[in-house]
Structure formats: structure tokens, C-alpha cells
UniProtKB/TrEMBL annotation:
General function of this protein: Presumably involved in the processing and regular turnover of intracellular proteins. Catalyzes the removal of unsubstituted N-terminal amino acids from various peptides.
Reaction catalysis annotation: Release of an N-terminal amino acid, Xaa-|-Yaa-, in which Xaa is preferably Leu, but may be other amino acids including Pro although not Arg or Lys, and Yaa may be Pro. Amino acid amides and methyl esters are also readily hydrolyzed, but rates on arylamides are exceedingly low; Release of an N-terminal amino acid, preferentially leucine, but not glutamic or aspartic acids
Primary enzyme class: hydrolase
An example Gene Ontology biological process: proteolysis
Entry binding sites for Mn(2+) 1: D287, D364, E366
Annotated Mn(2+) 2 binding sites: K282, D287, D305, E366
Protein name: Probable cytosol aminopeptidase
Cofactor note: Binds 2 manganese ions per subunit.
Gene Ontology molecular-function annotations: manganese ion binding; metalloaminopeptidase activity
Localisation: Cytoplasm
Organism from which the protein derives: Corynebacterium deserti GIMN1.010
PROSITE patterns (UniProt xref): CYTOSOL_AP
Length: 517
């Protein structure tokens, strides 16, 4: 078989038309020129004024409410103690137009897109027992408002046979949210924002799916089916083909499981592509740590260890739906890291795709092994840029916390990715790869070792390891999303518990920026 040949055959144990067993739900988003009839409420924005509350919305607010009605709304808000603090939600009877839900935005001179997104997310989560609301908030920033309301309304009920009454009452996903706009030019922005929301939701749904249902064989087919819906070319390598073509990292990690590994490639190839980009995402469908077994506490969260691959899948589909003029080749290496008689061991030496060898010191540092194979393969295409992303290291959480991704790589490209993340509200920070790590990743019995013998700079050490597999002359960024991809704390703004969909919006914005440059 030719080195770069792929099989499109579905794994024998998985139906070729397999889809996710359950999808999350979100509010239905609409754009209308005037206020719909029979709505349950109008959501308006509220600023903290210097001396008094201020309604926000400009001409659109005047289009919906008269001056007297706006004065009545402010009087009611002041009477119930509304402050306009960011994300504060206040319900009042409103006027004869409709009841009013006011969401605080803080001080007007401090308003930015992320403040607006988070406020709209908080508003969306407050829309319990309401079937249809309209809002004027889009006048302050339509894309940010649509993103906030759309992502904030997300609900994932899982595989429960019955949903209890409390969940039914708390469900905001059945709500219809209508954005009022009198500007014809808003339609394109609205549609684009909807696509971005739906892309993030897709990533969330894949990450939230339990490993009993999402494993390498089923994941590859489900992901390929999603991509095919949007006209993308998909190709799958099974375990035999991986062995024939030398993907030693993916095979080593996946061999301990009865559910064997896969490599999925997805291509978006527009005719007049301005640049080319490779995307690589870690797809560990469950991570026990292998022979270097993890502690049992919170191991259930390891269903999220394929968050990088879910983000890559969602991004390449978004590129097609948005018809962006940049070629994207997405590689999703998939494996389940399990201990067994067939599992790889500390002390083993494996040979990666392309020939580099790695000494295994810790089988729980498995993500970089499958990424290394996929990065080496992606580099053969000689893309202009290569981005890989993964829930890779606990060191990321120690360094940057639960919400901020660490970005390493080629200096200028690294800094650009981190800045774009902050711009769209997916917090990211550029991190160095110190030169002393050059020696620490070397092995006396192989080209590399998969961990260093130091407890310091673990996140950067993983980045330094991956750097060895990036082709010469390719602008590269590695994004560690160990914390940001899966929210184990409480919901906030437009971010739910469990899967967040990070960093899909960052990557889509990167592609859009490339398309416009």
C-alpha cells in the first residue's frame, strides 16, 4: 500500500452511518426586522451610570420602546434595586409591549465584546420557562450577542432515560431568541455567528459523549460522517494500516485497549486557497494512564482527553461552512490508553512515523506520542502553518489555571494565536520553550524521551518534545488546553459545566484572519 493511502471503510464493529448517540440542545436563534407578536419578554441591556441607571441599545431601543416606556422601565428597575453590574439579571413587569429582562453590562466606557458575550450568556441561562424572547442587545455588537446567547443556552442531558421535572423547568434550550435588527447588512454577520456557535456546540457534544459510546472506531466514523455532511473529504487508517505505514506512537498508545486506534484525516480544499494550514488534535478517547496508572479520583473526567481532536474537527467543518479560502488538512489521531498484557511499558522504545525513536518513561504522557505521529505526517504536506492542540499536561493547570491555554511554538505565530484567543474570549498566553530543555528531552537509548527527569516546566517540555516532529520551515503553534477544554467548576457567562468547546472560536478566527490577509 502506498505510504499516504487511506481507507474510507468503516470499522467492522461500527455502523457506517453512526452518529453521536445524543446531542446537546440550544435555543433557536432568529433575526427579525421587527418585534414578534406574543413574546414572553424583551431582553435589554443596562449600564451602570455615573448617577443613575442607563438603558443601552441606541436607535434600536428607541425603535422598540417610546421615551415614556423607557422611563417606566428605568423606574421599575430602580425600584427593585437593579445596579447594572455586569451579568446581573433583573426581571420586571415592563410595559404594555412586553415584560422586560434587564442584563447588566457594567460601566459603558468599559464595555468590550467579551463583557457582552458573558452578559448574554448569563441572560440565556436565566430564560427558564420562557418559550420566546426578543432582544435589542445585538445593537451593541451582534456577533458577540449571538455568540453569548447561543453558547449560554447550551444544555446537555446525556443518556438519561427520563429527565426530571426540575431539569424540564430549568431548561433554556427550548427557548427561541429573536434578535431585532433594521440593518440589512446584519444578516451575513448573524449567519456567520450562528455557524461559529454550532461549531463550538459540535465540539462540546463530542467531548461530553461517554467513552462507552465514543472510542477510536466509533469516533472516527462519527467524526467522518459529520465532516462528509458538509462536503469534506475524509480518510481513515485502521490499526493494520497504521502498522503498515509506521505510526508507532499511535499504535503503542492504542495497543493496550481491545478498541484499536485510528487516524482520521479531513480535508477542506477550496479552489483559490490563499494559504495552507494543518490542524492536529489529540484524540485520546479515554486515558487511564496505562501502566503508569492514574489515581482513581476524578478519572471519569478523562472522557475529555479527546478535546483537542474535537476542536480540530469542529474547526475544519466551520472552514467549509464559512467557505474560507484557506486549505485545511486536519489530522485526528485516536486511541484509548489502557493497561493490559498488550500495553506499552515504561522502558520501551518506539519508532514514530518518519523514523524518530522515543524512550517511554511514563505511559501517562501518551498524548504527545500520538500527536508526534500526526504532526510528522501533517508536515509531509508542507503546509504554511501547523497548529496542534491537546488536553496535554497537568502542568498547564499549575502554570495558568483552569481557563487559560498555554501556547508554544514559532515566536511570531505563537504570539498571534495567543492574542487571537484573548480577542475572542478564549484566554490564552504565550509560553517559552527554554533552551535547557533541548538536553532534557534527549534519551541515552533513543532520540527522545517522552518526559524529562525534572518536575519543572512540564508544559514547555511537552512542547519541546513535539517541536522535534514539525517539518522544517513550517510556522507552528502548540496549544495546551488541559484546563480550558473541560470545565470542572461551576458554569459562568456563556460557559457550561463539562465540555466548553475551547479553542474552536480561536482557531476559526485565525482562519478568518488568514483569509482576509
Amino acid at each position: 500500500m502506498a505510504k499516504n493511502a487511506f481507507s474510507t471503510q468503516a470499522p467492522t464493529k461500527v455502523s457506517k452511518d453512526a452518529t453521536l448517540p445524543v446531542r446537546g440542545t440550544v435555543a433557536e436563534l432568529k433575526l427579525e426586522k421587527k418585534l414578534p407578536k406574543n413574546i414572553d419578554a424583551v431582553v435589554v441591556a443596562l449600564f451602570q451610570g455615573e448617577d443613575a441607571l442607563e438603558l443601552a441599545g441606541g436607535d434600536l431601543l428607541d425603535f422598540i420602546f417610546s421615551a415614556d416606556q423607557q422611563a417606566a422601565i428605568l423606574t421599575q428597575l430602580e425600584a427593585v434595586g437593579a445596579t447594572g453590574k455586569a451579568q446581573e439579571i433583573t426581571r420586571i413587569p415592563g410595559t404594555d409591549v412586553a415584560p422586560v429582562i434587564a442584563v447588566g453590562l457594567g460601566k459603558a466606557d468599559l464595555l468590550d465584546d467579551e463583557t457582552l458575550r458573558r452578559a448574554c450568556g448569563a441572560a440565556a441561562r436565566s430564560l427558564k420557562n420562557l418559550s420566546h424572547v426578543a432582544t435589542t442587545i445585538g445593537d451593541l455588537g451582534l456577533a458577540a450577542a449571538v455568540t453569548g446567547f447561543g453558547l449560554g443556552s447550551y444544555s446537555f442531558k446525556g443518556l438519561r432515560k427520563e429527565v426530571d421535572e426540575k431539569d424540564k423547568k430549568d431548561d433554556t434550550s427550548a427557548t427561541t431568541i429573536t434578535f431585532i435588527s433594521t440593518n440589512k447588512a446584519d444578516k451575513d454577520e448573524f449567519v456567520s455567528s450562528q455557524i461559529i456557535v454550532e461549531s463550538v456546540i459540535l465540539a462540546r457534544d463530542f467531548v461530553n459523549t461517554p467513552s462507552s459510546h465514543l472510542y477510536p472506531e466509533s469516533y472516527a466514523v462519527m467524526a467522518a460522517n459529520e465532516a462528509t455532511k458538509h462536503g469534506l473529504k475524509t480518510e481513515i487508517l485502521d490499526e493494520k494500516q497504521l502498522a503498515e505505514q509506521g505510526f508507532g506512537g499511535i499504535l503503542a498508545v492504542g495497543n493496550g485497549s481491545a478498541r484499536k486506534p485510528r487516524l482520521l484525516r479531513i480535508d477542506w480544499t477550496p479552489r483559490k486557497a490563499k494559504k495552507s494550514l494543518a490542524l492536529v488534535g489529540k484524540g485520546i478517547t479515554f486515558d487511564t494512564g496505562g501502566i503508569s496508572l492514574k489515581p482513581g479520583a476524578n478519572m471519569d473526567n478523562m472522557i475529555s482527553d479527546m478535546g483537542g481532536s474535537a476542536a480540530v474537527l469542529a474547526t475544519v467543518i466551520a472552514a467549509a461552512r464559512l467557505n474560507l479560502p484557506i486549505a485545511v488538512a486536519a489530522y485526528l489521531p485516536m486511541a484509548e490508553n489502557m493497561p493490559s498484557g498488550d500495553a506499552f511499558r515504561p522502558g520501551d522504545v518506539i519508532t514514530h512515523y518518519g523514523g524518530i525513536t522515543s524512550e517511554i518513561l511514563n505511559t501517562d504522557a501518551e498524548g504527545r506520542l500520538i500527536l508526534a505521529d500526526a504532526i510528522a505526517r501533517a508536515s509531509e504536506d508542507t503546509p504554511d502553518y501547523l497548529i496542534d492542540t491537546a488536553t496535554l499536561t497537568g502542568a498547564q493547570l499549575v502554570s495558568l489555571g483552569l481557563r487559560t491555554s498555554g501556547v508554544m511554538g514559532t515566536d511570531e505565530f505563537r504570539d498571534s494565536i495567543a492574542a487571537t484567543g484573548r480577542e475572542v474570549g478564549e484566554q490564552a498566553w504565550a509560553m517559552p520553550i527554554p533552551e535547557e530543555l533541548d538536553e532534557q528531552v534527549k534519551s541515552p537509548v533513543a532520540d527522545l524521551r517522552n518526559v524529562t527527569n525534572s518536575r519543572f516546566a512540564g508544559m514547555s517540555a511537552a512542547g519541546r518534545y513535539l517541536q522535534e516532529f514539525v517539518g522544517e520551515g513550517i510556522e507552528w503553534a502548540h496549544v495546551d488546553i488541559a484546563g480550558p477544554a473541560y470545565n470542572t467548576a461551576g458554569e459562568y457567562g456563556y460557559t457550561p459545566k463539562r465540555a466548553t468547546g475551547a479553542p474552536v472560536r480561536t482557531f476559526i478566527q485565525v482562519l478568518k484572519d488568514f483569509s482576509e490577509s
